[in-house]
Amino acid sequence: MSSADIAIAKPDYWEEAVAHLMRRDRILKKIIPQHSETWLTSRGSPFITLARAILGQQISNKAADTLWQRFVDTVGKRPTPSSVLTVGVQGLRQAGLPQRKCEYVQDLAAHFGERRVHPEKWAAMDDESVVSELVAIRGIGRWTAEMFLIFHLQRPDVLPLDDLGLLKAISLHYFSGEPVSRFEAREVSSAWQPWRTVATWYLWRSLEPHTALN
């Protein structure tokens, strides 16, 4: 996650969540004030958010940005399911995208184009129901679905236990750098409920180079 994720409008629950976390967690009480001008923002349309997530999986941010630029140069600045399906796998391959990612983003476009997913209903669905619908798409696992819950739907209580950045931050701040299990991470997070998304956000921020805890 980077400073590009920062925007002007705060989620309506943000201040309440911050107050709760600063009362309940001594580590976050130190971290949060160092990032008082940053908060979570929603990212684009559901289709674009998911397409970008698929193309950016398991590669560096720089490589992901390069791949995304090739993608939009090929399908248009505002990609749609129709534009992606029209270009097809071969067209994306010719633009330099990896075969597997081409197949995944085509499957995403097909799901949207054929209305096998229902983005208009997601706001009213609970987290696990949205995850279940998303992981039926090739190339979308639980981590990607949880990032969608956080960055697009802005759900307040998501704990992405498969996120290496979150586990690294918990290890650093709560376990003196020792490896952390998913069970231990969940135990630490119990004090954050019902605002685990917000805690995760600030722990991501704490890994940025300029942050130093005293």
Automatic annotation (TrEMBL):
Main enzyme class: hydrolase
Residue ranges annotated for the HhH-GPD domain, each copy included: 55-208
Any Pfam family hit: HhH-GPD
Gene Ontology CC entries for this record: cytoplasm; protein-DNA complex
GO aspect biological process, one term: base-excision repair, AP site formation
Keywords (A to Z) from UniProt: DNA damage, DNA repair
Signal peptide stretch: none
UniProt-listed SMART domains: ENDO3c
Catalytic activity: Hydrolysis of alkylated DNA, releasing 3-methyladenine, 3-methylguanine, 7-methylguanine and 7-methyladenine
Catalytic activity, EC: 3.2.2.21
GO function term, MF aspect, one: DNA-7-methylguanine glycosylase activity
Family label: Belongs to the alkylbase DNA glycosidase AlkA family.
Cited PANTHER family: DNA-3-METHYLADENINE GLYCOSYLASE (PTHR43003)
Protein name (record): DNA-3-methyladenine glycosylase II
